[in-house]
Amino acid sequence: MATLCNMSADYYSRLERERGPQPSPQMLASIAQGLHLSIDERDHLFRLAGHNPPPRDSSSEHISPGLLRVLDRLQDTPAEIVTELGETLRQTPMGVALTGDTTQYTGPARSSGYRWFTDPGARDLYAPEQHAFMTRMYAAGLRGIVTLRGPGSRAAYLADLLLGSSEEFRRVWDDHEIGIRPREVKHFVHPEVGALELNCQHLIDPDQAHSLMVYTAVPGTESYEKLQVLSVIGTQTLH
């Protein structure tokens, strides 16, 4: 249980025995996620520990138990849970093998769209012929979220950062495009297995603005065979 909650067994044991210090909000969030608590149960836990619960809005990073259960059944498939800003909250081992550990980023760089415009290495995983479309897609997607969430939102903050740091973003932002959806088939260029054509299915949790993204290949294709190879290579290839 301590491992699920990202803490030491000694610390968790002291909490159970009511001998530990008052847990911080960050520690309570880890416990709530590790125990697969619902939002109501998470809020109750925070109040029991003397803290106000986190807000129930699009910025929440508490993954619903149902979405976690689905992810847990996909251990042999590339999959990830992301926020509406493209911040990875959880990945399967195969997800890490495909894209690297994208939970490691901090600050604005947690957003895949922010990395697209500020980190040239973020584009290496995708086929060059897809780059122009993805540039437009990320800008249009962020514009839609800014409109939905308002000028004081995290989305608006990211847009301001990008307007100040990326000439490419400023150019496509000025086009005012909206509604450019991700394509169902994504073209990856993996450093170990090469080109991959993977279908991407989304399962959306509207209450949390989270998406479960699952990547699959058509059986019998070269990409399907490469995914089998990738499962053997494991998560060490990108580290």
Automatic annotation (TrEMBL):
InterPro entries: Cro/C1-type_HTH, Lambda_DNA-bd_dom_sf, MLTR_LBD. CDD domains: HTH_XRE. Residues 1-42 form the HTH cro/C1-type domain. It comes from Streptomyces xiamenensis. One of its GO terms (molecular function) is DNA binding. Gene3D superfamilies: 3.30.450.180, lambda repressor-like DNA-binding domains (1.10.260.40). This is Transcriptional regulator, XRE family.
